[in-house]
């Protein structure tokens, strides 16, 4: 027991050290003598990375425990498809005015998050009640709804003026390089609320991992708990999506790297570890984008690329077991 | 424990039909009957793993659905037939989950004591630090039972726990359950497919067939040729050896 605790502390300590080191390097490398400017700019980006990384890590790990699958990520609930549609409709009806003025920006963010949370919460509540707590029915409907919403967005996009469409594309693509700085405070606050709930529930999540029947036997009201968890997960995904746009594979990479790296079942350690790992990946990736690829690629493209390969490899591994 | 008019229907098929049953406290009761009789379904409803369509189930005077989940978990424990998990866990860590209803993950001295006691009861002292994915099916089964023991509940429900166990561990487990009843006053309800184990260790037997309870009596009254022949629809020899009844059922 003591041995295990020691190795945990060592692992998390190492991750923490690496994360801090990477952040320091990112903040101070090649500032062209313009310290203050670089620090302010990069510091804000790092805040964005922290919020997105932590939100994605907590939500993906929780979601995978609820669904008992290391391959699913909360995207399957259709939240990012909903985000695409909201953005498209806003753009279609109001043009890009919304994106320029600060108070509007905050408003749009609030509306985005609110709609995403309300929609997914009612979907989850409704389906879990109707379907007799059938989680997989929920996931399937989420997936179908997701493709439906995407098609609907495409429909509106086709109707658009090509110039407008071009601008919309720019706004939609996950863009870590232009994290919405004005929104950091609001999303930070929401993040802390969601994350502290999940962290407090980490022992309950450990039990849920044993399966539904063991969960009930050990005194967890599984259907109610699942519902609460899915709602918090959708809030976290909504925050991250509204902040940088949809990132499909980040959660998958981070959670699976965490499982194989940490060999751990306790959620409190998984949460901390995966948050640090996602921070290392994001800041390290951004560093590469800026200083190795000289902005010739974006971090979201890198994430999709690496994540896609990793996903295929994991699937192959699972298949050949 | 009282069961009143409990039914369950799957797609128009009534798999448990208006069962009424009063299980004796501080006794070991075995459920027997052919496959598909509804034993597992009834046990799942008794332990709120499965919602019943109608009827009431009372323990210590209260209907089970009126309990808070956490409170019921301190009174009643259930182990189902099949259990697979794919986690990086040691034996001791899995058994520790049994203390969750009391400690919510923060183990006290008392919790540790009960965990070690449960490990010892199931002969798992030497395996305590092994990873569960290295265990055989029978060993894992004992670990789960140790977890249920660590839960320290008045009522213990087990669905065919002897599957996967070799004869020696099966007999040992039955003795452990006997001791829990005799020394600690627990109420144990167990589904057994080998009637000889029921005959040797149970105080009372409930025989189920086609969703109904066909007999409920003390063991000697149920382990009788006419009763068993009718229950299993085959020719079963009942003989007595060293004061105990045994059933022979392989040779027609
Ligand atoms: N989830 C389910 N859906 C449909 N039928 C079921 C389900 N679970 C059990 N049954 C049916 O209910 C009957 C009783 O099953 P069960 O309680 O497992 O019997 P036993 O444990 O006595 O062998 C069987 O006919 C089985 O096929
Ligand atoms: Mg059964």
TrEMBL record, chain A:
MF terms (GO), sorted A to Z: transmembrane transporter activity
Record InterPro entries: ABC_BtuC-like (IPR037294), ABC_transptr_permease_BtuC (IPR000522)
Compartments where located: Cell membrane
Entries under Pfam families matching the protein: FecCD
Main location: membrane
One of the GO BP terms on file: siderophore-iron import into cell
Coiled coil: none
Protein name as catalogued: Iron ABC transporter permease
The organism of origin for this protein: Vagococcus humatus
TrEMBL record, chain B:
InterPro entries: AAA+_ATPase, ABC_transporter-like_ATP-bd, P-loop_NTPase, Siderophore_ABC-ATPase
Localization annotation: Cell membrane
Membrane topology of the entry: Peripheral membrane protein
UniProt domain ABC transporter: residue ranges: 1-235
Listed GO biological process terms: iron ion transport
GO MF entries: ATP binding; ATP hydrolysis activity
Location (main, coarse): membrane
Keyword set includes Lipoprotein: no
GO CC annotation terms, alphabetical: plasma membrane
Keywords: ATP-binding, Cell membrane, Ion transport, Iron, Iron transport, Membrane, Nucleotide-binding, Transport
SMART domains the UniProt entry points to: AAA
PANTHER family per record: IRON(3+)-HYDROXAMATE IMPORT ATP-BINDING PROTEIN FHUC, PETROBACTIN IMPORT ATP-BINDING PROTEIN YCLP
UniProt-recorded name of the protein: Iron ABC transporter ATP-binding protein
